[in-house]
Amino acid sequence: MVRQIQHITVTAILTSSPYVILNDFGGAFAMGAIGGGIWHGIKGARNSPRGERLVGSLSAIKARAPVLGGNFGVWGGLFSSYDCAVKGYRQKEDPWNAITAGFMTGGTLAFRCEFIVTVPGSRHVQGAINVRTMSTGTADQCRSSST
Hints:
Blueprint: H1 10-14, H2 17-46, H3 53-90, H4 95-111, H5 122-134, H6 136-145
Helix pairs in contact: 2-3, 3-4, 4-5
């Protein structure tokens, strides 16, 4: 009896959902931390007195850049998780996966905030629109790397 050995390629492993999700989470965290370091470094230097600008800049970077990186990481991880879940459910590779993932990510992030009493769900829809608008490049990158 001959045993058949299945050969799993490296690309098949790296394009599976857990690796894609962790990769997107890490990339979003790095992007937020670097961007937050630049932003809060400039902001900290501007808000410090003359002669203390370097110390104020470094203090602001240490205090706020990791927070911004974490927020970006949560956004990227949620979007990638929903994107992979929708791909798995629909068994299709098209733009509607990213649109649905952006909608669900915006809804999840908006759900953490307080609700608007007058128009239920309006914050969720606006959040989904914002996330979808910002995530066009991320969705295209995920789609091209998994093919």
